[in-house]
Amino acid sequence: MVSGEAELTRRERSAAERDKIADERDRVADVREDTADERERLADEREGTAAAWERERLQRIDDQSERSSAAARRQQADVAREMAEAERRQNE
Predict the structure, then answer these.
(1) How far apart are CA 54 and CA 50, in angstroms?
(2) Reduced to 3 states, what is the DSSP secondary structure of residue 86?
(3) CA-to-CA distance for 16 and 22, rounded, in angstroms?
(4) How far apart are CA 43 and CA 31, in angstroms?
(5) Helix, strand, or coil (residue 84)
(6) Phi, psi dihedral angles at 21 (to 5 degrees)
(7) How far is it, in rounded angstroms, from Cα 23 to Cα 21?
(8) What's the alpha-carbon Rg for the chain, to the nearest Å?
(9) Residue 2 pLDDT greater than 80, yes or no
(10) Residues 20-41 pLDDT 10s
(11) DSSP summary character for residue 92
(12) How far apart are CA 90 and CA 92, in angstroms?
């Protein structure tokens, strides 16, 4: 009967070892999943940052365009004033 009990104990130890291995595999899988989630979060963050940078770049281009347009309008107004002044002088 001792050999039967020894076999049972050996099987129990073997089952316990398999449980430990399964638990460790679960833990490793959880860590890998967490790592993948973190990488995805960081990728989303980088994408958001890149989009923000692109919006800022486009805004700077738009602002520069507005400044250029305003300068051109000022120049046109100056020319119109000069022409009006020249016309007044000519009419005098």
Answers:
(1) 6
(2) helix
(3) 10
(4) 18
(5) helix
(6) -65, -45
(7) 5
(8) 39
(9) no
(10) 999 999 999 999 999 999 999 9
(11) -
(12) 6
Cα separation of 75 and 84, whole Å? Answer: 14
Q: pTM here?
A: 0.52
What the block records as the tokens of 1 is: 């009967």
Q: Which residues contact 39 (CB under 8 A, 6 or more apart)?
A: none
Question: d(Cα 17, Cα 9) in Å, to the nearest integer?
Answer: 12
Q: 25: which residues sit within 8 A by CB, 6+ positions away? A: none
Cα–Cα distance for residue pair 11/18, rounded to 1 Å: 10
Cα distance between residue 75 and residue 81, in whole Å: 10
Q: Which two tokens stand for residue 8?
A: 């049972």
Token couple for 86? 């020249």
User: What does the block give as tokens for 3?
Assistant: 């050999």
The amino acid that residue 77 corresponds to is: A
Residue boundaries of the structural domains of the chain? 1-91
How far, in Å, CA of 53 to CA of 51, rounded?
Answer: 5
